[in-house]
Design goal:
The chain is α/β, with parallel strands linked by helices. The chain has eight helices and 13 strands. A six-stranded mixed β-sheet has the order 10-9-8-11-13-12.
């Protein structure tokens, strides 16, 4: 074995490199004052497509963001190559504060909260009047998520040529929720799309709905230059097939706003919503809670809502829907 003398400065002395790196770690992080602002239009397997000024760029999340998620609708700060040229890749170094967040869970027993979209002003709840039949309970759940996330709800009824819209519109009339009905023929001629478009102007609207209700067909009519794949309803199960696999933000013609098409859902869990806030999704029932006992769960014998509804102030089906949601949430809390 070779041994060195007492002089450690000899040129032939080998120095083992520091495994932790040659430069000490610092808590000071770059401020990225030169970062450009971007708008996230889609996220696909770690690659994030953003709109920066008038250019579409591809970016990835910077390591310093840690596990912070990025979703469609986020306003982000981007550094690096933001030219948008093919093969270029930028970095997202900051996610700006969100003005609104639409969340859901797979079901009411799922502790994992999924952020669907960020910074949307409006939630368009799309439901078919037939084929598949409407699911008012799913609509109610989407309303809860909209109110809880700070979005204005909009009810969009499709396939009005197969069934009348009057009954469903009447059941939600007490809420003051804006609503519009259309069918495939009207969308083909542009008449139905024009009615819907009037309710989307100057807003960022997220579209959500059960698979097979015609959500993507509607989005294609609103933004004809961006055609997404559509599917048919299964004749045996009555369920639609998932054709939209990732959320995508699309600009409306003439810069009139944005629509965000999201994948079809089979369920809309509310595990993230505090049960005490569910009542706020039923504004037609809120006045009836004035005489409820302190701490009323609105699902107990002393609840004043029973007398309020019996007096004709609200639709009994609305109270039944509220209590179904509350019962589901209570079972989750008790697990």
């Amino acid at each position: 074995m070779r041994r060195y003398g007492k002089n450690p400065d000899e040129d032939d002395v080998r120095v083992r490199p520091d495994r932790r790196g040659s430069r000490p770690r610092s808590r000071n992080r770059p401020k990225h004052d030169d970062a450009a602002e971007g708008f996230v239009v889609t996220v696909d397997r770690g690659r994030i497509t953003c709109l920066v000024e008038d250019r579409t760029i591809t970016a990835m999340k910077a390591r310093e963001l840690g596990r912070k998620g990025i979703v469609v609708g986020d306003r982000v700060d981007v550094v690096g190559d933001i030219s948008g040229d093919p093969g270029t890749l930028a970095r997202i170094v900051r996610v700006q504060k969100r003005a609104s967040v639409l969340r859901r869970t797979a079901d009411d027993d799922d502790p994992y909260e999924r952020v669907v979209v960020a910074n949307a002003d409006q939630l368009a709840i799309v439901t078919a009047l037939a084929d598949p039949p409407p699911r008012p309970r799913l609509v109610d759940r989407c309303l809860v998520a909209a109110y809880d996330g700070g979005l204005d709800p909009l009810l969009v009824l499709t396939k009005s040529d197969l069934a009348p819209a009057d009954d469903l519109l009447e059941s939600y009339a007490p809420l003051g929720v804006r609503a519009v009905a259309c069918n495939r023929d009207e969308l083909a001629t542009g008449e139905g799309a024009a009615r819907v478009l009037d309710l989307l102007t100057d807003r960022i609207t997220a579209f959500v709905g059960h698979s097979g209700v015609g959500k993507t067909t509607l989005v294609n009519a609103l933004v004809p230059e961006h055609q997404r794949a559509v599917g048919e309803v299964n004749l045996v199960t009555g369920r639609g097939r998932h054709t939209t696999t990732s959320a995508l933000a699309l600009p409306l013609p003439d810069d009139r706003g944005w629509v965000i098409d999201t994948p079809g859902v089979r369920s809309f869990g509310l595990a993230h919503v505090d049960p005490s806030r569910v009542i706020h999704a039923f504004p037609d029932l809120v006045p009836g809670t004035a005489d409820c006992p302190r701490g009323c769960s609105h699902d107990e014998p002393e609840c004043a809502l029973d007398a309020w509804v019996s007096a004709g102030h609200a639709d009994p089906a609305r109270l039944a829907s509220l209590r179904r949601l509350l019962a589901t949430r209570e079972r989750h809390e008790g697990d």
